[in-house]
Amino acid sequence: MTSVLQAQELGKKYGKRWALRECTVDIPAGHVVGLVGPNGAGKTTLLKLAAGQLEPTAGAITVLGGRPAGGPAQLAKVGFVAQDTPVYAGLTVAEHLRLGTRLNPRWDAGLARERIARLGLPSGHRAGKLSGGQRAQLALTLGLAKRPELLILDEPVASLDPLARREFLQGLMEATVEHEFSVVLSSHLVADLERVCDFLIVLVDSRVQVAGEVDRLLSTHHRLTGPRRDPARLPAGQQVISARHTDRQSTYVIRTDAPIHDPAWTVTRLDLEDLVLAYMDRYVADDRRPVLEVRR
């Protein structure tokens, strides 16, 4: 299957601090990919490397088979909506669309006009006078009208209220169905990923902890609850992701492809929130758990 993004031992260092390190991941085409992790995990760094806004310190990355930002043709294939849905406060909605026409060789003016009209965005209003949700929709429109093969969105709805978030994500999903492009969406809001993503990457401590299709990940991860047991006594094919113990009871989250037949265990399936938090439980920095929001 064709890959939209491949990274091999990718790393980015700022001074003495690694913002991303040893990142190896292969994202197949045709997916809406959720990139999730705590603040400071390296999500924005990875996306900026993919967009060609940063150069790697170590390793290699290709996007749509080429070097990120490696010329006009490569730039035209990738849309990028950065944090805080950046738009030009002093430009009107209509001026944003005219700017898009000048800057993007594959610009779909009809799509942009139709979407702006359907959303009811006033074309004569300056972006600085729009609501947060309206600015987010304008930024998404600019990204979609570029007609990219890959659209990268870095925390695009984190600052929006629940209604604006839902409308933004609904518009994104409608566009992916209609125009058939790939998406990488960064978020620390697990509920957003549950709504729209079918491929998941969990990034913690600047490293990829797990990546794969959501259905596959959920079918191979289980919660085991039963009498207290040392992890060394678990079958070899059961990878322990997280563990909690009381005096009498053990609770494990494990990854396995094999059926679980041990009658001592109560086996329950995980939802996406459980899965993400299990991988985050493996990492504690400075005696603090990483920040992740799971609000609905």
TrEMBL record:
Decide whether keyword Transport is in the record: yes
Keywords, alphabetical:
ATP-binding, Nucleotide-binding, Transport
Q: Which SMART domains match?
A: AAA
Keyword ATP-binding on this protein?
Answer: yes
InterPro entries documented for this protein: AAA+_ATPase, ABC_transporter-like_ATP-bd, ABC_Transporter_VariousFunc, P-loop_NTPase
Q: PROSITE patterns per the record? A: ABC_TRANSPORTER_2 (PS50893)
Q: Which Pfam families match?
A: ABC_tran
List each copy of the ABC transporter domain by range.
5-230
Q: Which domain of life is it from?
A: Bacteria
GO molecular function of the protein, one example? ATP binding
Q: What is this protein called?
A: ABC transporter ATP-binding protein
Per the UniProt record, the source organism is Nonomuraea ferruginea
